[in-house]
Design goal:
With 349 residues, the chain is an alpha/beta fold. It has 13 helices and ten strands. It has an eight-stranded parallel beta barrel with strand order 1-2-3-4-5-6-7-10. Strands 8-9 form a two-stranded antiparallel ribbon. The structure holds zinc ion (2 copies).
Length: 349
Amino acid sequence: MLLATSFTVMNIGAHVRGGGKLTPSLDAGVEIGATSIQIFTQSPRMWKPSLYEDKVLANFREAQAAHPTIKDTFCHATYLINLASPNKELYEKSILCLTTNLTVGRGMGAKGVVVHTGSHMGEGFEKALPQIAEAFMRALDGAGKSPKGVDDCPILIENTAGAGGTVGRSFDEIEAMINACGKDERLGLCIDTQHLWASGFDFSTLEGAKQLVKEVDSRIGMDRLKCFHLNDSKIELGGNKDRHANIDEGTIGSKGLAALMGHPKIRNIPMLLEVPGDGDGPRAVDVKKAEKTYAQGLAMYGVSAKPTSSKVKSVTKKAAPKKAAAVKKPATKKPAVKKAAVKKTTKKK
Ligand SMILES: [Zn+2]
Ligand SMILES: [Zn+2]
C-alpha cells in the first residue's frame, strides 16, 4: 500500500450512507471506488441523537483499518444545528447536537466533523459572533474525548452559498469565527466548491485557484483546510443558492473544477463528492469523472497523472460492481457487520 503515497494520487471521496452500525459505510465507499467517505452519524434532519456504544465505535476504527483503500472518514453534522440562532432554546439544542456529533466523530477516529454554522436570521453576523464562538468552544470542550492513540477530530466549518443570513458566506466570516475562538487548533475548514461558486468566488481558472489558495492561506491557514466538498453547480456564479450538480453537468464545469483540483497546494486534500448522481448520491461513474477531472487539472499545471499503485487499483476495481448504485442500498442494511467487514475486504483483495 505504501506505493500509492509515493505518487500524486488524488483522494476522491464521497458522501455515503452511514447506517446504524457505521461500518457498512466503508463498503459503500469501496463499492463506488471512493478513497474517503463522509457520513451522517444521525438523521441529518432530526434532533434525535444516535448514541453509539464504545464497542460500535471501536468496531468502526477496526473496520477502517481493514479497508486500506478508504483513507479518511469525515462526518457531516446535523443540518438543524444553528449556532447563530437568536432563539435561545434552538441555540442550546444546537450546541448539544453538535457536541453529540463530535463525540461520535472522535469515537470513530474521523478526520473531522463538518458543520454548517447556521443563520443569524437577519440579526447580523457581528451580533451573532460571540455566541457562535461560545458554541464552538462548548462543543469542543464538552464532547467525549478521542480514544487513546487516535488523532483528535476537529470541527470543520463549511462555507455557505451566501443565502439570507447564513454564516460562513465569506472567508472574512470564517476567519472572524476562528479568531473569536482564540484560533483554537481544533477548528478547521471544509470548502464546498458549489457553495464557494454560488457565493461569488470564481476559482475556475488558474488565476482564480491561485487566488483561493492565497485567501485561505493568509486568513485561515491552509493547514486548517481538511477537505473539500466537490460539487458542480446548478446555479450561476454568485447565485447564492445551495444546489449541487454532477461533475461537468453544471455551471462550473470540469475545466473549472480541474483548475482547483490540480493546484499544487490542493492536490492532496480529500475531495468529497456530494453530487446528486441519479438522485441517490454519488455513484462509481461520478468518482471516475472526478478522477478524470483531477488528471485534467494536473495537466493544466504541467504534471501528468501518475497511476495509482497496482494493488490499490485492483482492489478498487474488483470492489466496484457495475451497478454500484443498485448495490448500495442493501449493502448499508446488511446485518452481518462485525467481522464480516474485515473478511469481505480480504476476499476482495
Ligand atoms: Zn454541508
Ligand atoms: Zn450544499
